[in-house]
Amino acid sequence: MRYPFISGNWKMFLNKTSGVELAKALVNGTKDVKDRDIMICPGFPLLSDVAEILAGSQIQLGAQNMYYEKEGAFTGEASAEMLMSVSCSYVLLGHSERRHIFHENNELINKKVLAALQGGLKPILCIGELLEEREAGNTESVVREQLTTGFTDVNAAHFSDIIVAYEPVWAIGTGKTATPEDADNVHSFIRKTVAGLYSKSISDEMRIIYGGSVKPDNIDGLMAKENIDGALVGGGSLKQDSFIRIIKFES
Predict the structure, then answer these.
(1) Is 167 an active-site residue?
(2) What value does the mean pLDDT take over residues 210-238?
(3) Residue 5 in contact with residue 209, Cβ under 8 Å?
(4) pTM of the prediction?
């Protein structure tokens, strides 16, 4: 059985005061949650402060991005070692905003996946299609390419530490969301693709989470689907009542 995974991506929102306040509220509001993993990804400047709040709780800390080199003259970047040193367990890689605003391609993202695993972080590989790709019927080909290249040279032994997040670009921050059925169909395709690349046992055990305008009023329907193992939540993770309700989904 795959353990549900609910994660919050704070993006470039919240400052030290509001971030610490939210982290405290989440810790207090999830003490009774026992059967799912929880993770939040604050901005880089907040990681150390939030890590202190999360210490001893069941909420894990993730970073929103990283660079693939161990160190060097890479202004504005952070390495896996840096993130580990502030208690990060996970890192988002290939988020649609990194792909389409900062023009990160599949090959660069693959380097980051490999560096994260080598550095001791658990990568969450984000994949998903643009609206025009979806309308052209290319969802599966886009997803297949992002998976195939993103996992190049990734050893099968590492898959217990890897999560895939399907986030259709057209549903991120737009208020639109894929129907639970549509999302589950793509998740099923992702699982079959991973089975072809590695094995059915690996694909059966790998967690695939959904991201794209996840809200309290659609989380239950999404989580009821066979191939949806959790959620990558953006705006819905910035307010305690909203995110706690998402964390406490009922399926």
Answers:
(1) yes
(2) 96
(3) yes
(4) 0.96
